[in-house]
Amino acid sequence: MRTTLALDDDVLAFVRAHARRERISIGEAVSRLARNGIQAESRAPALRARPKSRFALLPARDEAVTSEHVRAMLEQEGI
Question: What is the pTM assigned to this prediction?
Answer without folding.
Answer: 0.54
